[in-house]
Design a protein that fits this description.
Chain A is an alpha+beta fold. Helices cover 17% and strands 41% of the residues of chain A. Classes of the chains: A alpha+beta, B alpha+beta.
Chain lengths: 623, 741
């Protein structure tokens, strides 16, 4: 709700939540030593397995700074000790304890105990934290790195003989990490100690792979050893599925009055199953708001479909469940699906609660599954977002499960196409044009447009069309239905390209390309640490047809630019046919993941593109 | 209508402060409030109809009301071993709004509520306590297109914090869709014992909004013991006064069709948009005993007179001691007779510089940051002018206080609070000399741009004792500086490397008057400025100017901060270039401050050498040089910004001159140079370009002059013409044509 400026004082809406990692990280702070120990224990009385962890972290602050010290917990864990010393003296103030505000999540049960510690230059801060995870199923990984550079890191894990767990080492390459394992002959406890030196600070960069792809960590899994009697972790995907299934088994509401009534209304006049599926899917996209909740077991259990329908909002689980339920109400074979987006490095080969982070629905038509992710508000049926493309997907199948992959679509799913027909008018170009958006280009554009106010939408669409170029005026804009996501969205408009022609004597230099996609899209190799992952496969096709004025001839035009690699293709050309010049541009990014080792080649190729954009065509008077 | 609104408040307040209410749970109170508010029928919320002309809007506020009731009384309170009468205030506010949702943007904006449900700051003292508790109740109703109303169960909220003293909640409104009307209220019921900050009882409303508001009312109800101040500005109608009984007074602001706010560049909202503000105050006799003299208010005088009276009472060296080092500096430097004989412009400059030095260049344990942010510190003009005035009275220097307001804030007539005006000093010698107590780079006898042309009150002080001053006042208008006074002179020498891929630019920038201030703040290193000021004033080394309970540690912090600030200098210059050209330099090879312009009256001068991409493009065997871009980025005004609703209020009149020099690359001729020449002059200013060449040496002189800082909205097209001319020039190019063709 937008609280008005004038009411702020009276509403006293001072948010008391801790904003997750909101502080700017002071890069002059170092962790000189960071030791952690993890021990699996059985709780007295109940014999329930818990994970006790303790951490001792020593920070060296070169300059006066505010040092955020934090320990996170939720209903499945508790922080039992949180204390610190500054330059050897105990800091006695009580730490703050509050809910964590996580960007884009409406509500989370995550809590934090924290200090925002003001420290002088050259301060040494020692933090001691003890925490207990009440059920090891939620204890999924151990991280080596921190927000600050770490000079010495030690992780000790104590695994009693009765405990069925092992730790998979991930992303160790390139880091100095040593491992030592000892077995206590008396009680069979295995003690594994990892020691690492000179670990980098976690670096946040836009368009990076998720941290599980980058930083070294240990991933907790069942060891599957026969002699261990406590099976805290899933020993198979079937076990993981069984747990999920237990949370979703009683959600069937396809005969619920509200559901059937709504489905009937949505599908009125639809005769084929495909049309009905599309109608339901698009209705949910349009009418159900995505609001993220992460709340204990509710973080895994979908909300009832009838509730999502009543509230008109839900998280991915709720939206998936509503999609499935509505389709089931149509007697279609619809299922719930669990999936890990491409933010995660894991898949279902390593069963764990950490391997997925999303739920979608699937519907089987003509023996083929179609996946339906209603959280992607503006993607059409059978159009898949990059983040789930090719990812393993766990489909419910009664007591069993089906493991398959979401289809990987080609770059052609997405399209940003523009055709302009232009003529010269003094120093300007004028004409008409049409524009088409498809797939994720369409979703990108519509997301932005629908976030704008109604009376600013045309202006917003113009900005998409002209790439923010003030000299590219879009007039008389008409467009297809912006609330229809099936297929493409298109627009028609008149064009005025101001100052596009430089006249010097008898020669006219024409700058045809006013949008220049990917111009100066260089990756700073000196600053960039991680691979660069584009949000989706980009497919830009632009075509300009220019009427050459009578008495002029094209005396110079850039040579065609052709760059074809497995990851991207750039093709730009000018063709003259009688009194018509045609400019064609095609830029296709087939592989969204730009690997660091390819940064140099990328920069070289896109420099060629940028230079190409700079060069005008020359028209010379023949009179 | 008036009766109904008042009735609603009475109902709520009777409910909220009733004795048996203490025993009620939050839920019970919330339910009763819901019933009261939803059952109240007022014409503000009667209609669900949206006129056709608003159907293209994102949202339309069909009705909005804000109702406030304050009751303050004296209450005897036992405190520890003693007791006394303190203020007990019950305050209830109800904000209610009924909004038609027309699109997703509005749905997103109005579909979530976040509020502090309970804030209990009650303090306990032995067997007593001072209550300070607020409870916030919300209610939401969704009205569907068919008129069906759904009252939302607010128990669906989620709690973000949940202890007894503090509860913050969030509610995602279920069932709300595009096309619906959301009708919601936020009711705050607060009980406070003891004095409150005056700000807590101040309400300010612009009568314009993000959305069209079809009907609105703002109702303020007070018991008669409470003193109420009110101001209606820029044409806002005065409230209707009424009463619901002998003990209270009600003020009602009511209207229809509150316009949608249009943001315009170079505009002053406080001068253009109607607004009103209401505040209230109550103190027991006991509280008044210990109250500051500034808290007194004479109802027979205007608000401004009261505020100035209060300001005059701060001239009391006993109650409000101040730093006297500027006076001491002069007295130590000159004998009394000598001081009298010296011209005022030289002695007063020393006085003023010493004030700057003491204000901005002293360090302590909370005040050691030396990064760029420190440059933006601003002094409190009222306090510093008062201190300076007392010193000058002591030294018998003839001077006046100048009370005025910024051109971007309220007018002098619309002063409401003690902080709604600023104060400068004017030394009355052979010519007026101004002292503005602003920033470290504000010079002696320099009037900040936002005061130029403003109405002012000239207060002439008379000192009766160290504790008593009186003032006589006359009205005046502050002077306005000419465009020639606020000037930038840029010299750009451009070279072309053989591959013609980049250009190399040696840029020298001299800035004078108001045009130097922003870049001084962005580029000057505080460490260097400190050294310069110390040298000029014969000050002590930095360590001796560091006061702290732990000088060594604070000094260490200071040195660390200085080292950090030094590392950022190159980035600061790079950022200046990026802002100027909307493009970062490819490489910044040299950068330096030539003259800080802080300790002298010379222009602020700096030099950079850098390379830039994108200024030259190949055209066959020729090259096209976008020479116009060298004057920097000029905003292109879109069609929607080409109409004007408010008068133009620019920071200052100004002149920007650019001299661009380059050699035509060997093997090429230049074409199009003469086409760059242009001149446009109108009432607002001039844009002029002249070019010349001698052999292969080319010089361009570009001048942008804006002769006025303020202009009526009718002159917008003339200003646009100048801006368009400058923008068009940034698109201008010359051709380097290969010779021997």
């Amino acid at each position: 709700m937008p609280f008005k400026q004038t009411l702020l004082t009276l509403l006293l809406l001072l948010c008391s939540c801790f904003v997750l990692k909101s502080q700017e990280i002071d890069t002059t702070v170092n962790i000189t030593s960071y030791s952690s120990s993890y021990t699996f224990v059985k709780e007295k009385g109940t014999d329930k397995v818990q994970v006790k962890e303790s951490h001792k972290i020593k920070y060296k602050c070169a300059r006066p700074t505010v040092l955020p010290l934090a320990a996170y917990y939720n209903e499945n864990s508790k922080v039992t000790l949180f204390e610190c010393k500054i330059n050897g003296s105990r800091f006695y103030y009580k730490p703050k304890d509050t809910y964590v505000a996580i960007k884009d999540i409406f509500y989370s049960d995550a809590r934090v105990v924290y200090y925002d510690l003001e420290v002088p230059a050259n301060a040494v801060v020692e933090l001691t934290v003890e925490k207990t995870t009440l059920n090891p199923i939620y204890f999924t990984n151990i991280q080596f790195v921190d927000d600050y550079k770490t000079q010495a890191r030690e992780i000790a894990i104590n695994i009693p003989a009765w405990m069925d767990v092992t730790f998979k080492e991930l992303n160790f390459d390139g880091f100095k990490i040593e491992k030592n394992a000892e077995l206590n002959a008396k009680d069979g406890t295995e003690k594994i100690v990892y020691k690492a030196v000179n670990l980098p600070a976690i670096k946040k960069e836009r368009y990076s792979p998720g941290n599980t792809f980058i930083y070294p960590h240990l991933f907790a899994l069942a060891s599957k050893k026969a002699n261990q009697d406590v099976k805290a972790y899933f020993t198979s995907l079937q076990e993981q599925y069984n747990w999920y299934h237990s949370l979703t088994a009683n959600l069937d509401e396809h005969e619920h009055n509200a559901i059937t009534a709504q489905v009937s209304e949505i599908c009125k006049g639809k005769t084929t199953d495909l049309d009905k599926v599309k109608a339901v899917f698009y209705w949910i996209q349009q009418h159900i708001r995505y609001i993220a909740f992460e709340d204990g077991i509710a973080g895994f259990r979908p909300d009832k479909a009838s509730e999502v329908l009543r509230k008109k909002y839900g998280d991915c689980k709720g939206m998936a469940n509503l999609t499935k339920t509505m389709l089931k109400a149509l007697n279609l074979d619809a299922r719930l699906c669990w999936i890990g987006t491409n933010h995660l490095a894991y898949n279902y080969e390593t069963p764990s609660l950490a391997v997925d982070n999303h739920m979608i629905a699937a519907v089987k038509l003509n023996d083929r599954f179609h996946f339906l992710d209603a959280t992607e508000t503006y993607l059409g049926f059978n159009e898949y977002a990059e983040r789930i493309q090719g990812r393993q997907v766990l489909i419910e199948d009664g007591e069993k499960y089906i493991l398959t992959n979401v289809p990987t679509t080609k770059v052609q799913q997405n399209l940003d196409f523009q055709l302009k027909t232009l003529s010269i008018d003094g120093k300007n170009l004028i004409g008409t044009a049409e524009q088409v958006w498809e797939g994720e280009e369409k979703e990108n554009m519509l997301s932005s447009l629908h976030a704008s106010k109604k009376d600013e939408m045309l202006e917003g669409m113009s900005s998409f069309i002209n790439s923010g170029n003030n000299n590219f005026e879009v007039k008389d804009l008409t467009h297809s239905d912006l609330n229809s996501f099936d297929g493409q969205v298109s627009a028609k408009f008149s064009v005025l390209l101001k100052n596009s022609i430089d006249v010097f004597g008898k020669e006219q230099y024409v700058n045809l390309d006013a949008t220049k996609e990917f111009a100066n899209f260089f990756i700073d190799t000196a600053k960039r640490s991680h691979d660069y992952w584009l949000p989706y496969k980009m497919n830009v096709r632009k075509e300009i047809v220019l009427k050459i004025p009578a008495g002029f001839a094209v005396t110079n035009k850039p040579n065609n630019l052709v760059i074809n690699t497995p990851d991207y293709a750039i093709n730009l050309s000018y063709e003259v046919n009688k009194d018509v010049l045609t400019y064609k541009k095609s830029i296709q990014i087939h592989n969204t993941k730009i690997n660091k080792k390819n940064f140099g080649a990328w920069n070289n190729d896109f420099k060629k593109l940028s230079q190409y954009y700079q060069e005008p065509i020359t028209l010379k008077s023949t009179l | 209508m008036k009766f109904k609104l008042t009735f609603l408040l009475v109902l709520i307040c009777t409910f909220s402060f009733a004795q048996d209410n203490k025993a009620k749970t939050y839920k019970q109170k919330s339910d009763e409030l819901k019933q009261t508010i939803w059952q109240s029928n007022t014409d503000i919320f009667a209609s669900n109809a949206v006129p056709d002309k608003y159907k293209g809007e994102s949202a339309v506020v069909l009705g909005r009301s804000f109702e406030m009731q304050r009751t303050s009384n004296s209450k005897f309170k036992f405190m520890g071993l003693g007791g006394g009468n303190i203020t007990k205030t019950n305050r209830t506010t109800v904000f209610r709004e009924k909004v038609k949702i027309n699109d997703k943007a509005a749905l997103e904006s109005f579909s979530k509520l976040e509020y502090e449900k309970i804030v209990d700051r009650t303090q306990s003292f032995l067997f007593s306590n001072m209550k300070n508790k607020a409870e916030v109740f919300v209610g939401v109703k969704v009205i569907k297109a068919d008129g069906n109303e759904q009252i939302i169960n607010t128990d669906e909220e989620v709690l973000l914090s949940s202890n007894n003293k503090n509860q913050t909640a969030k509610l995602a409104i279920p069932g709300l869709q595009i096309g619906d009307i959301v009708d919601y209220y936020i009711c705050t019921i607060k009980l406070i014992e003891g004095l409150e900050d005056d700000e807590a009882n101040k309400y300010f409303f612009f009568l314009a909004d993000e959305y069209h508001v079809l009907k609105y009312s703002y109702v303020f109800q007070y018991n008669k013991k409470v003193r109420v101040n009110m101001l209606c500005a820029n044409g806002a109608a005065a409230p209707v006064e009424s009463s619901s009984g002998p003990e209270d007074i009600v003020y009602t602001f009511k209207g229809e069709n509150m316009p949608k706010l249009k943001e315009e560049v170079w505009s002053s909202w406080y001068k253009n948009i109607p607004y009103f503000t209401v505040s209230s105050n109550y103190r027991t006799k006991l509280e008044n005993l210990g109250a500051s003299p500034l808290d007194k208010f004479d109802n027979k005088k205007s608000i401004l007179e009261n505020r100035l009276y209060n300001y005059g009472k701060t001239f009391n060296a006993v109650l409000y001691p101040f730093d006297q080092s500027p006076q001491k500096k002069l007295e130590n430097k000159f004998k009394a007779k000598e001081l009298k004989s010296l011209p005022l412009d030289s002695t007063m400059k020393i006085f003023y510089d010493q004030w700057r030095y003491n204000t901005f260049f002293t360090y302590d344990d909370r005040n050691y940051e030396m990064g760029q942010r420190r440059n933006y510190w601003r002094a409190f003009s009222r306090y510093n002018a008062a201190a300076a005035c007392q010193m000058l009275c002591d030294m018998k220097i003839p001077h006046d206080l100048i009370v005025t307001t910024s051109k971007y804030s309220n007018t002098l007539e619309n002063v409401f609070d003690d902080t709604d005006f600023d104060v400068l000093l004017r030394i009355n010698g052979s010519k007026p000399l101004y002292m503005a107590f602003e920033r470290f780079n504000t010079r002696f006898n320099e009037l900040p741009s936002y005061y130029e042309g403003q109405k002012a009150l000239v207060l002439t002080p008379t000192r009766h004792s160290a504790k008593e001053y009186t003032f006589t006042s006359v009205e005046a208008t502050l002077p306005v500086s000419a465009a020639e006074h606020n000037k930038i002179d840029e010299s750009l020498v451009v070279n072309f490397p053989t591959d013609m891929q980049t250009i190399s630019v040696k840029r020298n920038v001299k800035q004078q008057g108001h045009m130097r201030l922003a870049d001084q703040l962005g580029l000057l290193l505080m460490e260097d400025t400190d050294a310069e000021m110390t040298k000029m004033l014969g000050g002590e080394e930095m360590k001796k100017r560091t006061t702290s309970y732990n000088v060594k540690q604070t000094y260490n912090n200071l040195m660390t901060s200085i080292a950090d600030a030094r590392k950022a200098v190159k980035d600061n210059f790079s950022e200046e270039i990026r802002v100027q050209y909307d493009q970062a330099p490819k490489e910044l090879s040299t950068y330096k401050i030539v003259n800080s312009g802080v300790t002298n009256t010379q222009p602020f001068e700096y030099e950079t050498t850098f390379t830039m991409d994108g200024f030259v493009k190949r055209a066959g065997s020729n090259y096209i040089f976008n020479v116009g871009k060298l004057i920097g980025t000029i905003n292109k005004f879109e069609q929607k910004d080409r109409t004007r609703e408010t008068d133009i209020v620019m920071p200052s009149a100004r002149t920007l001159n650019y001299q661009i020099a380059f050699d035509v690359p060997s093997g090429y001729d230049i074409k199009g140079l003469a086409d760059l020449n242009t001149e446009l002059t109108n009432e607002i200013g001039t844009f002029k370009v002249t070019s010349s060449s001698n052999a292969n040496k080319v010089t361009l002189n570009v001048s942008r002059k804006y002769a006025v800082s303020n202009a009526p909205k009718g002159k917008w097209n003339e200003l646009l013409a100048l801006l368009d001319a400058a923008y068009d020039f940034t698109e201008k190019k010359v051709l380097f044509e290969k010779t021997g063709k």
